Amino acid sequence: ALPRDLEGLRVVISAGGTREPLDPVRYLGNRSSGKQGYALARVAAQRGAEVTLVAAHTVDLPDPAGAAVVHVSTADQLSEVVRAESATADVVVMAAAVADFRPASRAEHKIKKSDDGGAPTVELVRNPDILAGLVQARPPGQVVVGFAAETGDAGGDVLHHARAKLKRKGADLLVVNAVGEGKAFEVEDNSGWLLGADGTEVPIPLGAKAQLAAAVWDAVVGLRKTQGV
Ligand code: C5P
Fold this sequence. Notes:
It is built from five helices and twelve strands. The protein has 229 residues and is of the alpha/beta class.
């Protein structure tokens, strides 16, 4: 049986990939399956947490048992729900693949092909960094966890970049996944590292996404102990 070491904690987890509409029928999206975020929610509920899962687009996944699920689509919607839910959370995990850019405007009607064989130009604008915003606004004692999908080989560069990202965003923990051909996205297994703002670096061997989820919750429990909350 799993430990009930998250009993009494309210956790908010975002998962899946956002979609940024171009017109009524098209969007910019990404390859996130949502499986890692759903595994985090499932394991947290099994360990006794009160779980809210803010789910963007995923492959067909059942709602995790014991979690309240709020479905969203765009980065803007995800931001709004996560921010509201986080106000009273003990732990927030941003596992969602949030679009960094969105089309500057959304066409009211389907964009048509022109007769001259030309193609439209899509102007993009930046989406706000939700994770960084959560860190700025967090209540005392709240643990904030981010994800980083990095391409490249293990070792040197990936972890160097990830460390810089952790610092830039101000989160307590960063889950670093190596991505690329057949890695992390759309597959059942995951591997990577858990970087702590305190300088810790825990490798996570290739395994089921539930296993990575367990490692994240172990680290959160450890962090709360050292922080004395
Ligand atoms: O900067 P990058 O997109 O690699 O950071 C990934 C982390 O930041 C993830 O935890 C993701 O959920 C979060 N993120 C966010 N808002 C964005 C982009 C990413 O919260 N606009």
